[in-house]
Amino acid sequence: MVEQLTKQYPSKNVVVLAIVGFGGIGKTTHAQKVFSDNKVQANSGTTIWMCVSHEFSETDLLGNIIEGAGGKYNREQSRSQLEPTVERLLRGNKFLLVLDDVWDARIWDDLLRNPLQGGAAGSRVLVTTRNEGIATAHVHEMKLLPPEDGWSLLCKKATMNAEEERDAQDLKDIGMKIVEKCGGLPLVIKTIGGVLRERGLNRNAWEEVLRSAAWSRTGLPDGGHGALYLSYQPSGPSQVMLSLLCLIARKLCVPHVGHRQIMDSREVCRSMRCHFGGNRGAISKRAAS
């Protein structure tokens, strides 16, 4: 993906690339690594990260791009007023724009394509999405973790140090069964790893997690994962982890209208901004003038 973002495409200045996969499979994590890569940063000029999510505001999306590019976002302006500002700020400049968690292809096709098409050669738009229909010709498809890799990840998340990680090998027989229940999804494995870390390297505690009815928990929104319910049990993770699980819940559950939706998009974006240390849905680095 780093090579794809930094290579030259003679036929067009602005190239769209996509990271595609199930919710919780690690698309955002992979995009973070690519976004932070020294080669990518050095090659990109202005870099902007946007959390989009299922429900989004066209004006806020445009406004946050404006702020990321060094401009000022007037929240009273309409889409038709904001689009020329985006175009003016990025025209002739090289940029990398990450659109994380895109559900609707119209975000690029209808909203952003025209304002961004004036970017300099080497400009890139990187999209993370679970919708294959949004993907372009330049696609990186995320794969489920194989069992041994899943165990390695669970072991790291369930232990505090290298010594504990070695001791955890005595629990591998149970751990591999837990990994199987996680379905190869890194985010679920990390969640359960946090639960196990709080319970310690105790065979009975791990077996309790393995046998928990939460794996087949009903009453969650469609697409939800029992691991999320398990992580909320009284003997489960700390309050800090519960806050993180709000974001995880959004990652693993298809949004629903009304009371069945776990979080609304504004709450999710606030969680993402906390994760990245940003302020209004975008983080940016402008090239030195």
UniProtKB/TrEMBL annotation:
It comes from the Eukaryota. One of its GO terms (molecular function) is ADP binding. Residues 2-162 form the NB-ARC domain. This is (wild Malaysian banana) hypothetical protein. It comes from Musa acuminata subsp. malaccensis (Wild banana). The lineage of its organism: Eukaryota, Viridiplantae, Streptophyta, Embryophyta, Tracheophyta.
